[in-house]
Design goal:
By secondary structure, this protein is α/β, with parallel strands linked by helices. 34% of the residues lie in helices and 17% in strands. The protein contains twelve helices and 15 strands. The longest helix has 16 residues, at 149-164. The two termini are 20 Å apart.
Length: 346
Amino acid sequence: MDHLSLSRPDDWHVHLRDGDAMAAIVGATARQFGRALVMPNLQPPITRVQEALSYRARILAGLNQEHPFNPLMALYLTEGTPKEEIARVAETPEVIGFKLYPQGATTHSEAGIRSLEALDPLLEALAHYQVPLMVHGEVTDSDIDIFDREALFIERYLEPMSQRFRSLRIVLEHISTREGVEFVERATGPIAGTLTAHHLLLNRNAMLVGGIQPHHYCLPVLKRETHRQALLAAATKGHPRFFLGTDSAPHLRSHKESSCGCAGCYTAHHAIELYATAFDQVGALDQLEGFASHHGADFYGLPRNTETIRLQRVPTEIPDALPFGEETVIPFMAGQTLPWTMTEAE
C-alpha cells in the first residue's frame, strides 16, 4: 500500500503552550488534525471555563489556514475546583473535560492533586454531569521506582475509582504499560485510553543506551519492549477504547539539554506520519483510520470529521530543529527519515 486516505484525524491530548511559543507550533497541529484536546497545564494553570475560552481565542488568533480547526479545552482539576465549574463545563461545548495531574507527576503539575482520596465529591459531580476526566496515571511517591509508577497508580487509585464511580467517564492518558492496556480492555464502564506515537515506536533503550537521549525523555517514561509491544497491539487491533493522543509537549532546546532536562517529546510537527510508520511496521495500516479518526470522536460523543487527508509512501525528512519562541525546539526523531508523508488535505 503506497497511498492511504483517512478521515481527518483528531489529537485527543496535546500541549500548545502560549504566547510566541504557541504561535510557532500550533499550525503543525492544525494542519493535520480537525480537533485537538488542549491541555491546561500553563503557568498559572487553566482552572476555569472563562480562562479556557480566553486561551482558546488566543490559539485561534495564532492560526492562518484554509480548513477549519477546532481546539477543545480541558480544565485543570484541583482540590479547590467548585462543583459549579463542573456544571459550567457540561454546558460549554468548547470545554469538554477536566485533567487530573497528581502533584509532581510532570511539567507544571505543582498545582495538582495531593490527595486522591479527597476527590470523591468532585468525582461524583463529574459522573453526574457526564463530564470526562482525563488522568495522568502515575503515583509520585519518592520511594516508588519510576518504571512502576503507572502500574501502581492503576492498582492503588484508578481501579478503585472506576469501581466507586461506575458511570464516570475516564480517559487514561498516554498509556505506557501493559497494565494500562489491560485496565482499559477489561473496563466495564465508559473508560478509554490514549496512546502516543513515541510510546508506540520506542522502548527505554532509545533513551538510555549509548548515553542519555534527553529528547526521548518523557513522562510517563519509556518502558521495556514488552510494554511497547502491548501498546502497539492495543492501537492496531481496532479496539474502540483506544485512540490517538500525541501528548506532544514542546520545550526549549536549552531546557531539554540541561543538567535537569524537562520531560516531553515534540511530535506534533509530523505526528500522523509517526503513527503511520508504527502501524505500517506491523501491517496494520487498515486500522489507522479507526484509531486516529473515529474512536476518540465516538468516545467523546462528537461527530466524525468529514474532511480527509492523504498519506503517501514518500520519505519525510524530519528537521534538526524548529523555531520556538526566541529559541528552538528539537522535534522527535530529529534528522531522521520516515517512510510516509502527508501529501494533501481535501
